[in-house]
Amino acid sequence: MATKRDYYEVLGLQKGASADEIKKAYRKLALKWHPDKWSQASDAEKKTAEANFKEVAEAYDVLSDDNKRARYDQFGHAGMGGAGGFGGGAGGFDGAGFDPFDIFNQFFGGAAGGFSSSGRGGSRTYTFNGGDPFMGGAYGPEGIFGSAFGGGRRKTKGADRRTTVKLTLQEIATGVTKKGKIQGEEISFTIPAGVLDGQQLKLSGKGYPSQVQGGQPGDLIITIEEIPDKELLRDHDDLVYNLLIDFPTAALGGPVEIPTLNGRVRINIPAGTQPGKMLRLKGKGMPTSGGYGTGDLLINILVYVPENLSDSEKKAIEKFRDSDHFKTNEEKRESLFSRLKYLFTKHD
């Protein structure tokens, strides 16, 4: 029997991760291992994707529930064998009472009004109710994930068509309706707010017609390509803006203008602001694709030190060289370094 991995390890988190970090990690991995993204892969790759998708769902189901998480933190996997646990073999699923697809539906579809479901196992049916065509009902009446877990596409179904849609951060933040011609056919579809770069949406019935009489047409697979913004960097649901200020503003404070998704706004820089200080504007980031909140706008402070000084400027600065306020020490170094850690941390 294979050893089950730690749930925090599965989601790539530390044990003290916040609820928001757990949601972000699950969303990213659920989209990565979503079986529909592996429908054209080899049988071995499909099997790996299925196992990873279930493992991620199991980890999220436990860590997103305060009671289950507390029991797991105390007893590990041994504490999950009873009520609320999973039991079963190495995969953690015994087929009774736990459905990773339901978790995916609740996390993505439920918040966006995407799709409704009924039945379990092979009798599962999904109906598109609007909302996000990938999270919701952009799957035909054969059932969601049917092509990946059900032995491949039905032979009577037509081939898929594929297209790439380039979106600005502003379009992603609000959602947008796109129109265009795909091989001569006029098609209109809505991109929900909060989609991720590389995410794929599926529009059922908009692919190639079936080659068999009475067969269903294929689907339209839409791949999202995020256009990099000239000023704002995206970090999951947060936005980052690198603000360069002059030394007098850093030392004395003062108003500055920064860009946001809704235009430029004025903020005040506190006196004594150090390089690497991160200011935060709550709720000015990107909406989440799960519909549970909005990220923040992080303003990373950079301070410009002039490279070319006149003689009079050099003399003016020289007067401050011996001032205690201008001298560095270990305490100031540690304080500044702690602010700069964010810049050297990889954000997946």
Brief sketch in words of this structure:
The chain has 348 residues and is of the alpha+beta class.
Largest sheet: 4 strands, mixed
> Topology as H/E string?
HHHHHEEHEHEEEEEEHEEEEHH
Count of strand segments: 13
Oligomer: single chain
User: Mean pLDDT, rounded to whole units?
Assistant: 77
Amount of beta strand: 15-25%
C-alpha Rg (nearest Å): 26 Å
Our measurement of the CA-to-CA distance between the termini, rounded to an integer number of angstroms, reads 32 Å
Helix content: 25-40%
Task: Report the uncertain regions.
Answer: 82-96, 109-154
Tally of contiguous helical segments = 10
Broad shape: flat
Main sheet: which strands, in order across?
8-9-13-12
User: Structural class given helices, strands, pairing?
Assistant: alpha+beta
Features:
13 strands; four-stranded mixed sheet; flat; alpha+beta; three-stranded mixed sheet
List the helices and strands and how they pair.
Blueprint: H1 7-10, H2 19-32, H3 43-63, H4 66-75, H5 100-112, E1 115-118, E2 125-128, H6 146-149, E3 161-167, H7 169-174, E4 176-182, E5 185-191, E6 200-203, E7 220-226, E8 233-235, E9 238-246, H8 247-252, E10 254-260, E11 263-269, E12 278-281, E13 297-304, H9 311-318, H10 330-340
Parallel strand pairs: 3-7, 9-13
Antiparallel strand pairs: 1-2, 4-5, 6-7, 8-9, 10-11, 12-13
How does this structure look, described?
28% of the residues lie in helices and 22% in strands. The protein has 348 residues and is of the alpha+beta class. The strands form 5 sheets. The protein has a 4-stranded mixed sheet with strand order 8-9-13-12. It has a 3-stranded mixed sheet with strand order 3-7-6. The protein has a two-stranded antiparallel ribbon with strand order 1-2. The two termini are 32 Å apart.
